[in-house]
Amino acid sequence: MTRRTIVIIGGGVAGSLLAVQLTRLPGGPWPLDVVVVEPRERLGPGTAYTNDRPEWLLNVRSQGLSAFPDQPNHFVEWLHQNGIPEGDYGFCPRQTYGRYIESLVQTALENTSINGVRVQWQSSRAVAATPTAGGCLMRVELENGRTLEANTVVLALGNFPPSMPVRPDTGYHYHPHFHANPWAPGALRNIGPNESVMLIGTGLTSVDVLMALRADGHRGPLLAVSRHGRWPVAHTETAVSPYPNYYASELAGLRTVAEVLRVVRRHVAQGEAEGYNWRAVLDALRPDLGHIWAAWPKPEQQRFMRHLATLWSTLRHRNPPQNAAALAELLGSGRLQIEKGRVRHIEGRGEQLAVQIRHNHDHKWLQADHVVLCTGPLMDYQQLNDPLIVQLRHAGLLVPDSMRLGIQTSAEGALLDSAGTASEHLFTLGPSLRPLWFESTAVPELRQQAADLAAVLAQRLAGNHPEQAIALRRVP
To answer: Residues 128-153: pLDDT tens digits?
Structure first.
């Protein structure tokens, strides 16, 4: 039986979960080799969960973070088995979750799975992926000079660092006190305890920076700049009672933002009258958010992005209660100030940086010892200069979407080429699927995407092996 190869480019949470899901395919033996390409020292945690910051917490309770859709208690059971507390209010440090994902993929690396799938790790960076002359294989070129031949290539590239807030870059990017990527190893460590800090953004990344500064003993003035000045709302201290799902009965097929908003508002009011927390009313739609987004025509999606995306983010991506309490203390004491406005210019002024913002028609200059960029990851694949992305883009194999949210794909995650044809050999999952599902970054979405894509790839492989197709059909 001829073995086939799947190369997964990216060994963060999405890529690692896909590799693990492939080792869980029913039946066997599967003639399948899985090669994960990841240059970082650890396989599994990715950028979000590889850190030395215990104060950086997950923003979902442990009960909602199992790696497997069909085993909802898996993460909690892992915590108990390893003697690890679930954390205050059930919110663990992100580094703990990184260890969990790492343990799953490490088990897959060390042992051939019972279904015959073998997982390997190539500790390098992929710089190109090209179809071979016959069109049946992909050749993946690595930064270390090696090449891999694959029947299927999956892009699991995760999030990219934020884009510069002012273009063209006038040199501020290279100022020693401009922190372009707060996730980078050692970021923020050169900020003195009494130095002033300006944050560009007021989302969860800004909260992380504030918690890190607090843990480092920072005492200086803090200023946060954003267009709307909204902070993520807090989780409740205890889990809320679940609200009944109302997607199928009232939202399925609605094609305008206004129609959906009207229904949701009605249920929030109804839920509050019946004793439900509004958070539960929104969370009831969690499994169906992608379907709501996908049902909107592009003008409606654009309307949502213009008018509601920021508000939705503050309501949907919430703050652990202990972080919310610390944020409230900083705001209440006056040490943390907020300025509303859009950043128009940044320049170095000696040891400090000056930032010009515009709010309505007014312009204002602000100055600080350090400026930290907290605007969230870059999602526009047209701007990315990663060698692999550039090569695929120039070859017409990867097409950024017009809304600058990710990559154009089929419903199965196959990349669409410049002619709009779905690839037989190139797939993706994770944040790159935001054009398709919008919600595509949190663990509950990533784990489902990994399970779904594993099933899609298995069906393609089973097409040449009838006995495997029979095994797949037996899965409930």
So the answer is: 999 987 656 899 999 999 999 999 99
Q: How far apart are CA 198 and CA 298, in angstroms?
A: 36
* Strands, E assignment, 369-436: 370-373, 414-416, 422-428
> What is the chain's Cα-based Rg?
23
> How far is 157 from 433, CA to CA, in rounded Å?
11
Residue 450's Cβ-count burial label (10 Å; 0-12, 13-18, 19+) is: buried
Q: What is the pLDDT of residue 476?
A: 41
Q: What is the overall mean pLDDT for the chain? A: 93
Instruction: Name the one residue in this structure whose structure tokens are 């515009």.
Output: 358
* Residue 226, strand partner residues: 340
Alpha helices in 347-426 (DSSP H): 387-394
The contacts of residue 215 (CB under 8 Å, 6+ apart) are 53, 55
What does the pLDDT read at residue 473? 45
CA separation, residue 423 to residues 363, 411, 413 (Å): 48, 12, 9
Q: In this structure, is the dihedral angle defined by the CA atoms of residues 213, 214, 220 and 226, taken in order, positive or negative?
A: positive
Run of H or E residues at 13: helix 13-22
Q: Of 297, 317, 298, which Cα lies nearest the Cα of 309?
A: 317
**How far apart are the C-alpha atoms of 471 and 389, rounded to whole Å?**
36
How are beta strands 370-373 and 336-340 bridged, if at all? unpaired
Q: Give pLDDT < 50 ranges for the chain.
A: 469-476
Predicted confidence at residue 112, as pLDDT, reads 82
What's the pTM? 0.93
